[in-house]
Each structure stands twice: as structure tokens, then as C-alpha cells.
Specification:
By secondary structure, the chain is α/β, with parallel strands linked by helices. Helix content is 53%, strand content 15%. The model has no long low-confidence stretch (mean pLDDT 75).
């Protein structure tokens, strides 16, 4: 009696364990409660895919698995891959698949690249476009082709020619740089002199402006215009350093023009200091003779 009871308990335990195992498998695989869609793709190189390999959507979670691989009966150069995915997956008519790996040393999986929003959903059993798989060995072969003896020889020849060209033109380059440095050294004192002259002219204008007051609007306007011109000259001195870089060939002519400008400003300043009435009268006043009315 006890033996039968023990056998019944063992049998019940086996049945419960089998039911739990079946429920676990069903829960993991989703065999029930979810329908699947089947699609096909053709690859000239399958990249080591096997039955049961993972199918992912846009690099996301697993959405299906590969159910079958076989040689294409219509074209033996291709491998036909049959994949099952979730029925609610938005696989479009312009979606395409490619073989990828999540890491350099990881196993390959099949990746579904999403289609455009305006495209229609692909029907069950449709053939999806596939991207050609390029494995590491193919990349290595391409690198070897680029670095073959002929290309290495061409690269070495190009480097040798560039080195010879630099060596040949080095004196001219050095001479040009020396000339540019010498021109910069000459330009520095000239700019400083121009700044001083501009400052002196501005001070003179301030004295003249204070002298004539606001009784002569036309003269005051002329002084203001002249002050604007001096401000322009001052701004010019700040830009000459940039102009030096892009107009090094015309530096001598630029220096000569700046000398003329500096001399004109000096002459104008001296004229204002010695003859300020020239701002009020068009011509030099006539010499006064004794006995003549003022």
C-alpha cells in the first residue's frame, strides 16, 4: 500500500514538473498567444548565420529568429534566409535586412532596418531587400590591395618629390619670411608715429572747436567731419597688421602711402597751430596797411 502511494506521489511530481517546464518554454518562446510573420531574404554570403540566430529591429531587442537557411534553388550563388518575426512589427515594403554584429567578437545576427513612414506594411511571406555583407577578411583584402607594392611605390615617390620640392624652395621661403619680418619691423615705428600724429591732430581740433564755439554751425560741421576722418585713420592703423599678412607683396607701396599720410597730418597739425583762422576764412587775410579802415 505504501509502495503504491509513493509511486503515485512520484508520478504526480513528474507531471507537475513537466507542466512547469512546458509553461516556461512557452512563456519564453511565445509560441502561443502571439502570431508571427514570415519573411525571406537572399544573401550571396550568409556571414555564419544559423537556424535560431537572433533577428533584431533597428538595433533594438530581439523580435524574432531565423527559421531556415538553404541554397537558393533559382540561383545557387545565393543563400535563402527565412525569418519569423512578431506580427505587430512594422516591417515596410522598403525595409531591408543586413547581417550585423553587436561587437567585433560577437556572433552575427540579422538586422531589420526600418522603412519610410509613408511606405505600406510588407505582407506575410514577402521578400525583403538585403544589403551585401562585408566580412573582416574582405576588408583586410581591400586594405592589402590599397597598400600593394605599386601603390606603396607611388606613395614613396610622391613623398620624395614633396621633400625635394621643399628642399629646393627652402631658400626662397626663408628669404620671403625675412623680407616680411623686416617689413613688419619698419611698419611698427611708422604706425606708432601715425598714432601720435593722429592724437595731436585730434587735440588741436578740440582746441579749435572750443575756440569757435557754436557760433559757426558750418565750421563746426567741418570739424566734426574732420574728426570722423581722423577716427577712420585711427581704425586703419588697427587693421594694418591684418593687411600686412594678405598684402605682403605690396608692403613697400603701403609704407610709402602711410608716410605721405603721416606727413600730411603733421603739416595739417602745424597749420592749425600756427594759423587757426584758416578754418574760419577761405583765404589768407590780406595784409593790413597803415591808415586803412579795419
Amino acid at each position: 500500500m505504501e509502495a503504491r502511494r509513493e509511486q503515485a506521489l512520484v508520478g504526480l511530481f513528474v507531471i507537475v514538473a513537466a507542466a512547469v517546464l512546458i509553461a516556461t518554454v512557452v512563456g519564453i518562446t511565445g509560441a502561443f498567444g502571439r502570431t508571427a510573420k514570415t519573411f525571406h531574404a537572399f544573401f550571396p554570403f550568409a556571414g555564419g548565420l544559423e537556424v535560431g540566430s537572433t533577428v533584431r529591429y533597428a538595433g533594438g531587442p530581439k523580435v524574432g529568429r531565423i527559421e531556415k537557411l538553404r541554397i537558393d534553388p533559382q540561383n545557387p550563388a545565393n543563400i535563402e534566409v527565412t525569418l519569423n518575426v512578431q506580427s505587430d512589427l512594422p516591417v515596410k515594403t522598403d525595409s531591408h535586412v543586413r547581417i550585423m554584429s553587436m561587437s567585433p567578437l560577437g556572433d552575427n545576427h540579422l538586422e531589420i532596418v526600418p522603412g519610410t513612414p509613408q511606405a505600406a506594411l510588407a505582407k506575410d511571406g514577402a521578400v525583403l531587400q538585403s544589403d551585401k555583407y562585408i566580412d573582416l577578411s574582405a576588408i583586410t583584402e581591400r586594405v592589402n590591395d590599397v597598400l600593394n607594392d605599386k601603390n606603396r611605390g607611388n606613395l614613396s615617390g610622391t613623398l620624395a618629390q614633396a621633400h625635394a620640392m621643399i628642399a629646393e624652395n627652402r631658400p626662397q621661403v626663408r628669404s620671403t619670411l625675412d623680407h616680411l619680418n623686416a617689413s613688419s619691423e619698419k611698419l611698427g615705428p611708422l604706425l606708432e608715429d601715425l598714432r601720435k600724429t593722429s592724437g595731436q591732430a585730434n587735440q588741436t581740433l578740440n582746441h579749435v572747436d572750443a575756440m569757435i564755439g557754436e557760433n559757426r554751425p558750418d565750421v563746426r560741421q567741418a570739424v566734426q567731419d574732420l574728426r570722423k576722418s581722423l577716427a577712420t585713420v585711427t581704425s586703419l592703423t588697427g587693421r594694418l597688421d591684418q593687411t600686412l599678412d594678405v598684402n605682403s607683396e605690396n608692403i613697400d607701396e603701403l609704407l610709402e602711402n602711410l608716410r605721405h599720410v603721416s606727413e600730411n597730418l603733421k603739416e595739417f597739425t602745424n597749420t592749425i597751430k600756427t594759423k587757426p583762422y584758416t578754418l574760419l576764412r577761405a583765404n589768407t587775410p590780406r595784409e593790413h596797411k597803415t591808415g586803412e579802415p579795419q
